[in-house]
Amino acid sequence: MIELSNIEKHYGSYHALRDVTCHIKEGEFFSLLGPSGSGKTTLLRTIAGFEGIDSGSVVIGGQSMAGVPPNKRPTNMVFQSYAIFPHMSVAQNVAYGLRAQRLGKTRTTEMVTEALGKVGLAGYGERAAHALSGGQRQRVALARALILKPKVLLLDEPLSALDRKLREEMQSELRHLQRSLGITFVLVTHDQEEALTMSDRVAVMFEGEIAQLDTPQALYKRPASKRVAEFFGAMNILKAEILGLKGGIVTTRIEGLGVAEIPLGPEADTHGGNKYCAGVRPELMTVLDDGESAYPKENPAIVTDVEYRGELTYYDVKFDGSDTPVVVSMRNTTNREIKEVGQKVRIGWENASAVLLLEQT
Amino acid sequence: MRQMQLDPDARRGLSLISIPFAFSILLLAAPLMILLAMSVWTQDFLTLDRTPTLDNFVEAWTDPIYRTLMLRSLKISIIVTLVTVCLAYPAAYYMSFVAPNNRKALLIFLITIPFWTSYLMRIFLWKVILGFNGVINGSLMGLGLIDQPLDFILYNQLAVVVTLSHAWLPFAVLPIFVVMEKVNRAYLEAAQDLGDTPFWRFIRITLPLSMPGVVAATLIVFVPTIGDYVTPKLVGGPSGLMIANMIEVQFKNANNAPLGAALALSALLLVTSVAGIFVWLNRRYLTSEGAA
Amino acid sequence: MSKRILTTFMIVFTLFLYAPTLLLPIFAFNDSSIIAFPLSGFTFEWFYSLTEADELRGAALNSLIIAAASSVLATCLALLATSATVRYKFPGKGLMIGVIMVPMFLPEIIIGVSLLTVVLLAGLKLSIYTIIMGHTLICTPFAIAILRSSFQQLDPSLEEASLDLGETRFDTFRRITLPLIMPGVTSSLLIAFTISLDEFVIAFFLSGTEPTLPVYIWSQLRFPQRIPSVMALGTLLLLLSIGLLTLSEVLRRRSVRRLGQHDTSGAW
C-alpha cells in the first residue's frame, strides 16, 4: 500500500530522516515507534505530504506521490491536537472534506450520521466543537478523516492527550475499527506498550533511521540491537564474547551465565567487526526453589535486592564471579517462596532465554 | 550544494511576502533614495541643478539656524523620551503587577481612550490648558494664588515637552506592559524565596526582564519625536520650533526642496545613530547583565 | 505601602492622560467664541454650525475614503506578510519584515517629504491617492502587529487538517484561516482606519486641493472664531473613535466566547 524508498530529509544541518525504506502492507495496522526526535512524526508527515523530502520516493497505492500536495493524496490524518475546527459544529467538522464531492445536503447528512455512529457519537452532530471532551474530540477527528474513505489513515500520537483509562479504551476501539474497516492505519507513538498491543507490525526508529521493523512478538523476543531491546520493557544487558558460529547458531560466553548457543537473528551479522552483547529478559530466568531442576542450565547467585509487586517479585541478583546486577522476575504463584536479601540461590535458564544484541557504535 | 533550491514552503513564504515587500520598496525605500538624490542636487530658482554636491549638507550642518534647530530637536526628543518612559514604566508596572487580572483589559482600554481624540485637537487643547487665559492660569488666579497670568508656561520648549510626552504615553506604556506580562511570576517568587527584599527583587529580576519593553518604548517615542511638526508649531512659540518646521518651510514656502531633503535626512541620521548607540549600549550592558 | 504610592500614581497618571480630552466637550458646549475659563453657558450652536460648513463635508468625505482604502489595503498587505512570516521559513525573512515594519519607527515627516519629492519630480498632481499610499505604508506595521498575535494563536494543524481533508490552499484560507483570525482582521481594519482618519503630517504634505479632515481642522485652528466649532467636531470624532473601539472589543470578546478560547489578549 505504501512504499517508502531511500527517503532522506534534512532540516538545515539536522539529518531528520536517514535512508528510510519500508513497505506498509494493505489493511495492516502499522506503527512508527520511537523516542521524541527520532523522525517518526516527520516520516508520517512525509506520507501525508506536509513535509517535502530531499531524495527518495513515496508511493501510495501504486502511485508516486512526488509533487502531490496533501489535499490530493489518498491519505487522511488524525492530528495530535485533533485539530477540530473550533468555529464549526461537530457535523460541520465531519462534513468538512465532503464539500469538494458536491453530494447534496441529504447525502451529506446521511454520511455524517453514519460516520458519527461508527465512532460512537450518534446524536452529537449539533454540538459546538469546543464543548467536547478530549475523547470526543478524538472521535470527531476519526469520523472526519474516515468519512472520506481514505486508503490510509495516519494517526499522529492520537492517544497521548488522553488519561490512562480512556487511552486503553481507545486502543482497543481503534484496533476494532481498523479491523472492521480494513483500512491501512499508520500510527505514530512513543509508547511501546501501545505499539505492541495495537499493531500488526512496528517500525522502531532512532535518530531518523528505522532500527528494526517486525511484528510486536518478534520485536520483543528477538530485538536486533541493544537500543531496541531496552526500548521494549526490561532487558538485562550482559557482556558477551563470541566463540564461534556454525549453522546459524552462535556460541557465546555470557558474563555470569557462561556459554550459551544462541540462534542468530535475521538482522545480526557477526562479520564486519560489530560489537555484540547478550540480552536476557527478567521473566525468562527463574529463581529456583530447593530441589527444583526444570531448566537445562543453572548458575549460583546471591540475592542483593527484593522488590515485591504483588503479581510479580523482582529480584536483583549477582552471579558468582560477576559484578553486574541482573534482574529476574518471578510470578508469585501459590507455592513459590519469596527469597530474602543475602540468600544464596540458583538461577535456572536455557539457550532461548538469551539473545545476541548489536551494540551501538 | 542545494542551497539555491528552495523547498515549496520557502517558495510559498517568499511569494506571499513579496507583495507587501515590493510595496515597501516602491513607496518607502525608493522614495527615500530619491530623497537622498534630491538632497545632493541644487535648487536653481525654478529648475533643479542635478550636479551632485554636498553643499546642502554642509549648509544644514554649519548654518547656525539649522544647527540650533537640529540640536534643539535632538535635545527635546531625548527629554521627551526620558519623561515619557519614566512615567510609562510605573504605569505599566501597576497594570501588570498590581492590578488584578480581570481589570487589565479595562485599564488598557482606559488609558487608550483619550488617544482616540484627534491628534491635532489634543495638542491644541494643551494650548488651551497652558495658555494666557488657559485652564492653569485661570485656576491659579481663581484660587488667588497669582495676580496675573503666568506667561512662561506656553510658547516654549517646556510646553513642547509636556505636550509631546502626553501624546506618546500610551505608545510607551503598551510595549512595556506587554513585556512585563510575559515575565514568569515564578521568577519573582523564586527571588523572594532566595532572600531578596521587594526592592532587590525589582532591581535584579523585574527591571532586567522588562528592559526589552523599555527599549521598544524608547524607540517608538524617540525616533518619531524629532519629526514632530504640529506640537512645536502650536505650543512651541519661536523658541520652541523644531527641525520639522524648517523642513516644511524649505519644501513649501522657500521652495528649496534639496535643502529640505538634506535637513530631513540629517535629522533622520542623527536620531537613528543616537537610537543605535542606545540599543547597542543596552545590549552590551543592561540586558546581558540581567541575563547573567 | 509601595502599592499605595503606585495606585496614587496611576490615578494622577490617568487624570493627566484625560486632562485635554475632558476639556473638549466642555468647550464644545460652551456658549462663547473664546476658548477660556470661566465658562459662560450651554449651547448646541457649535454643533449646528458644523452642518453649514461645506468644506468640512468634503474633507470628511476625503478622510473616510482615504481611511477606508488604506485600512483595507494595509490589512491585505499585513495578511500576506503575516501568513508568510508566521508559517514559513525562507531566506531574507528578517530583512524583508524589517523593511516592512520600518514606518512604525520612522518620523512621519520623512515619509511625507520623500513621497512629496517623488510626486514633485514625477510631475504628478497631489491627490487623495498619494495620501492613501502614505497611509497604507504607516498602517501596515500596526496591522501586522495585530494580525501576528491572531496567527500565532491559530493552531497550524487546523490548516493542515483542512488540506489533508482535500481542500485547496485558497479554500483552506477562506474556510478555516480567515474565520478564525477574523477578530484580528476586524481590529486591524478598525485600528488602521482610526490611524488614517487621525493622521495629519503625511496628509498635510501630500494633500493638494482636497484636504483631509485633520488638514481642514488645521486650517481652521488659525481662525479663533472657528475654534468652538472645531471643538464640537472634535467631540464628534472622539465619540466615533470610542464607538469603533468599543465595537471592535465587543466583537473580539464575542468571538472568543464563541470559540470557547481563553481570553488572553488585552483590549485590542
From TrEMBL, chain A:
Pfam families: ABC_tran, TOBE_2. The gene is potA. Its EC number is 7.6.2.11. Keywords: ATP-binding, Cell membrane, Membrane, Nucleotide-binding, Translocase, Transport. The complex is composed of two ATP-binding proteins (PotA), two transmembrane proteins (PotB and PotC) and a solute-binding protein (PotD). Residues 2-232 form the ABC transporter domain. It comes from Antarcticimicrobium sediminis. GO terms for cellular component: ATP-binding cassette (ABC) transporter complex. GO terms for biological process: putrescine transport. The keyword Cell membrane applies. It is an enzyme of class 7 (translocase). SMART domains: AAA. Belongs to the ABC transporter superfamily. Spermidine/putrescine importer (TC 3.A.1.11.1) family. GO terms for molecular function: ABC-type polyamine transporter activity; ATP binding; ATP hydrolysis activity. This is Spermidine/putrescine import ATP-binding protein PotA. Part of the ABC transporter complex PotABCD involved in spermidine/putrescine import. Responsible for energy coupling to the transport system. PROSITE patterns: ABC_TRANSPORTER_1, ABC_TRANSPORTER_2. It catalyses: ATP + H2O + polyamine-[polyamine-binding protein]Side 1 = ADP + phosphate + polyamineSide 2 + [polyamine-binding protein]Side 1.
TrEMBL record, chain C:
It is found in: Cell membrane. GO terms for biological process: transmembrane transport. Residues 60-248 form the ABC transmembrane type-1 domain. It is a multi-pass membrane protein. It comes from the Bacteria. InterPro entries: Bact_Polyamine_Transport, MetI-like, MetI-like_sf. One of its GO terms (cellular component) is plasma membrane. PANTHER family: PUTRESCINE TRANSPORT SYSTEM PERMEASE PROTEIN POTI (PTHR43848). This is ABC transporter permease. It comes from Antarcticimicrobium sediminis.
